[in-house]
Design goal:
hydrolase, 6-stranded parallel beta sheet, binds zinc ion, TIM Barrel, alpha/beta, hydrolase activity, acting on carbon-nitrogen (but not peptide) bonds
């Protein structure tokens, strides 16, 4: 998403949140997105917890071969240790989002602690890739204050609607099935590249082929946000 569009989107979400507060609606559903409501057959593949020196290059190879752009929610601590794979992912055209620095769950941290995690990671991603426009809280642990802190940093908080189960090291076929059974237009698919020996690299190639057969296109999370359709 272009910087200007990103700000417009952030401000729109912030306004919605303030309105929700005024009218006592649940703000939580709007502050963090699990999927993007759309009628277009678009889907965003996302990878958390990397980079990892074995797993990340394996996944990047498959994505390059299939010509698919995705979003990597990198962990600041891993990006600091293996900066070359963050740079490579960005060079390949993938979006780099923040997954905070040390994978501590934000609901257990003080505001100053999680803001430091956010700022440290953002700074690193800016140096290695680009200004991050999306933020995924570690373990999906967030609250309204966390999402507002992200918005103030120009970032939308992104959760997921499809858990592939790759992090549990399920067999490739099961990871593929979990995905295909649950993907809908606007889905955000959760995968991982932060550990070795994951089924992810093998599964993602099959997932891409099968979803393409069903007419899906693959976009980064920021691109997916552009498909947001307000329902009446
Ligand atoms: Zn994670």
């Amino acid at each position: 998403m272009k910087a200007k569009n990103r700000w417009v989107f952030s401000i729109a979400l912030l306004t919605l949140t303030m309105l929700a507060g005024t009218y006592h609606l649940t703000a939580s559903t709007e502050l963090a997105l699990r999927y993007v409501p759309t009628t277009h057959k678009v889907v965003a593949l996302t990878f958390d917890d990397g980079p990892h020196p074995q797993t990340t290059p394996q996944i990047l190879r498959v994505l390059k071969e299939k010509q698919v752009k995705t979003t990597f929610f990198v962990l600041g601590s891993n990006a600091a240790t293996h900066p070359e794979w963050v740079k490579q992912a960005a060079q390949d055209g993938h979006e780099i989002g923040s997954h905070a620095y040390s994978h501590r769950f934000f609901n257990t941290l003080k505001t100053t602690e999680y803001e430091a995690e956010m700022d440290q990671t953002n700074q690193l991603i800016c140096q290695l890739a680009h200004e991050p426009a999306v933020f995924r809280p570690p373990g999906g642990s967030w609250n309204d204050a966390v999402a507002r802190a992200a918005l103030l940093r120009g970032q939308t908080t992104i959760l997921w609607s499809v858990d592939t189960g790759d992090w549990r090291r399920l067999p490739v076929g099961q990871v593929v099935k979990n995905t295909l059974d649950n993907v809908k237009p606007g889905s955000i698919v959760l995968m991982h590249d932060g550990q070795p020996a994951l089924p992810t690299a093998e599964a993602v190639g099959i997932i891409i082929d099968k979803l393409r057969d069903k007419g899906y296109q693959f976009v980064t999370v920021s691109e997916l946000l552009q498909y947001y359709e307000v329902r009446h």
